[in-house]
Predict the structure.
Amino acid sequence: MLKKIVSNADEAIKDIQDGAVIMLGGFGLCGIPENSITALVKKGVKNLTCISNNAGVDDFGIGLMLKTRQVKKMISSYVGENAEFERQLLSGELEVELIPQGTLATRCMATGYGMPAIYTPAGVGTEVAVGKETREFDGKMYLLEHAFKSDFAIVKAWKGDSHGNLIFRATSRNFNPLMAMAGKITIAEVEELYEAGELNPDEIHTPGIYVNRIFKGSDYEKRIEQVTTRLKA
Amino acid sequence: MLDKFGIAKRIAKELQDGYYVNLGIGIPTLVANYVPEGIEVILQSENGLLGIGPFPYADEVDADLINAGKQTVTTTNGSSFFDSAMSFGMIRSGRVDLTVLGAMEVAENGDIANWKIPGKMVKGMGGAMDLVASAKNIIVAMQHVNKAGESKLLKRCSLPITGLGCVKKVVTELGVFDIVPEGFKLLERAPGVSVDYIKEKTEGNLIVDGEIPEMILD
């Protein structure tokens, strides 16, 4: 019997130790694993390396783990919108590796597809290329970028089932299915948890083989960074 | 001289029917408001949406539906969602017809810098390095000078580079410039701006070939 369902975030993350390398899904605050972040703050694990497109805001998302100084290194593409992050970075307290967003996504994909590296033109001739192998294909230069190695990937999905199959909603999909494929151990928190057989196989974004633990999250805040609206005519 | 809305309006005239377009954060986002009558463009948002609709009404705001600037948006007829690897896959494989982005500096050889000011500001490149490395056509929307009054159209970029030799066109509050092998070729002047004034504000090589027309916005 597959036993992937755990009761909550505390149980899902209980074996994450100091110094772990963790992938966290989400773009900005959209599609972030809120429950697991709260549990990591509560557990107080330290010296984490976090691979995530962004670093949250001062008081939400990964920002909560920055505030408690649990993060040793961030690997991200864009870290604006977070004053505490910028302070720790400029003062040298926090190590940061900035990489192009498409490279970040594709390095996760490579891991999940069992490929050791990919070639991309992003960053050729920039600081990002320093120390990296380059190769020319059809007259254009490319950088060799390695697949990520991580201890855990933590993702947030809309729906999931007892076999670990996942369905994402709208733009909260973003990095989640890619990171789900890339964790040595992948933890998924979902808004709605179903029994195997209740979800349509045609609609699954992430097949359950990639997911080790799944739980039904609670109290999602789903904070919005910039509420922009139009007026009714 | 143009305001930021004028810059966006002028860039919108570059749109063609059926274009897939990626608009960066800031002035580029405004371009969506000025799509000319009778043409259809499909906007790509790098966080995983093709077919960005207008901002939502207050009662339809959805935290799961945002654009790359983290603003709430809507879908439109024919929209699709996808993950971040596929998003950059469509960019890298040359499916996006036009990319409009902001910049801190552009050089006369088409180099662009827009992701870092060493020791001062580190926000990161986001998707900009992927976009500039692969886009077929890149237009930069930016102010002509920085806050200190120094030209942002340079001989060579002084800030860390985002991409090499990739910018095709620059639109600022002063004019429209094509990047050609010799430098910035002035195509149009903004209303009320003289060629001499543009020369004074442009550090890179400015090419003025014959009479330069004033741009027509409407």
